[in-house]
Design a protein that fits this description.
Blueprint: H1 3-18, E1 33-37, H2 45-52, H3 55-58, E2 63-67, H4 72-80, H5 92-99, E3 104-112, E4 118-121, E5 137-140, H6 145-156, E6 165-168, H7 171-180, E7 185-188, H8 192-198, E8 202-206, E9 226-232, H9 233-238, H10 240-258, H11 263-274, H12 278-284, H13 296-311, H14 328-333
Parallel strand pairs: 1-2, 5-6, 5-7
Antiparallel strand pairs: 3-9, 4-7, 4-8
Length: 346
């Protein structure tokens, strides 16, 4: 069976197993060709489902292309330039962009990934208590959600953030540096934390739980990471039917991914499409919560990230997150998901 036949079969199966309700997006989409930013990460499960089960085609998109980028900055630039219509970053970049008057809008909240953020150290670094972090070099991507988590760790445990030795490295170099000993810890999202532990590292802190000796296993949230569905204000303004149809398909993907009854099927699709080891996908899957609701938790996470940007001097002021959140498309898909109304002017 070739790939085209396989995709058709999967799409037909999806229709039988309960596709999203696209009836609300009845008006014809303004465009039929859709370009979306994509990564090799479980975060993209809703996108994978929407493509593989034919929901995007049903929504009117006869051609769907995925594009990968080496950095969030490049993906953001591509969005503004119209090279992609959908971007799914962590929540830090769009907050920063809005603070710098770059016209983007949040269409949806894709996935809560606080648990997936990981601080992993070499065992010979002997990190047993928070103060031991002063003695090691920590690889992380500067200005990312990992930087915000390190700041939150410092606050939580009364550390002097200025004494923490952060080394700016992209994720692959973090892992290589950990293995070589050039850094003694990495602070990153999955699958890098998983691979670091698999390679002999020791989990020190997740985004939600401490593994320091004094409070091992206790809940201690130090991450506010979630991924978002983001587009440009101009695109949302010019293509209202497209945006509604797109969000109907993606919300359906989120709900399908979150249903335990679909776990085996979804993990298989994610492993195949992201080219990840199925064992890895299985191991980290429960660290992601596909929750499309616009609620107080969404606002709290966005405000937490905004607070990091101000405290670190990266921006001077920040905007109320609901000012650049456009909730109407999600409300059209499922009104119950919108607990707090967005105020974005589209």
């Amino acid at each position: 069976m070739n790939r085209r036949e396989l995709m058709a079969g999967v799409a037909a199966t999806g229709a039988m197993l309960g596709a999203p309700n696209l009836a609300r997006a009845q008006a014809k989409s303004e465009i039929t060709k859709l370009d979306i930013g994509f990564g090799l990460d479980p975060v993209f499960a809703p996108h994978i489902l929407a493509m593989q089960k034919g929901w995007l085609r049903e929504a009117g998109f006869t051609e769907v292309n995925t594009k990968s980028f080496t950095s969030g900055a490049l993906a953001g630039e591509a969005l503004i330039a119209g090279q992609i219509q959908l971007w799914t970053p962590g929540n830090l970049p769009p907050i920063s962009m809005v603070a710098n008057d770059i016209p983007v809008v949040v269409l949806g909240t894709n996935c809560i990934a606080t648990e997936a953020d990981r601080l992993v150290a070499r065992k010979d670094a002997n990190v047993r208590k928070p103060e031991d972090l002063y003695n090691i070099k920590i690889g992380l991507l500067a200005g990312s959600t990992a930087s915000a988590m390190l700041q939150n760790i410092a606050k939580r445990y009364g550390l002097d953030e200025r004494r923490l030795q952060a080394v700016n490295l992209p994720p692959p170099e973090q892992l290589a540096g950990l293995n070589s000993g050039n850094v003694q810890a990495l602070l990153c999202w999955q699958p890098w934390g998983y691979n670091a532990v698999k390679g002999g590292g020791e989990l020190i802190h997740s985004g939600t739980t401490s593994y320091f000796e004094a409070n091992r296993g206790q809940k201690a949230q130090v991450s506010a990471t979630r991924s978002l569905f983001v587009t440009s204000q101009d695109f949302a303004r010019r293509n209202p039917n497209t945006v509604r149809a797109l969000m109907a398909a993606l919300v359906g993907g989120q709900k399908y991914a979150a249903d335990p009854a679909n776990r085996a099927e979804v993990l298989g699709l994610v492993a195949r499409e992201t080219r990840q080891d199925p064992t890895l996908v299985e191991a980290i899957w429960d660290q992601y919560a596909f929750n499309p609701a616009f609620d107080e938790a969404y606002v709290a996470d966005m405000r937490s990230m905004a607070g990091y940007l101000v405290a670190s001097g990266r921006v001077r002021t920040v905007t109320d997150p609901m000012e650049y959140t456009f909730t109407a498309p999600v409300a059209a898909a499922d009104p119950a998901l919108v607990k707090i109304q967005g105020k974005a002017r589209i």
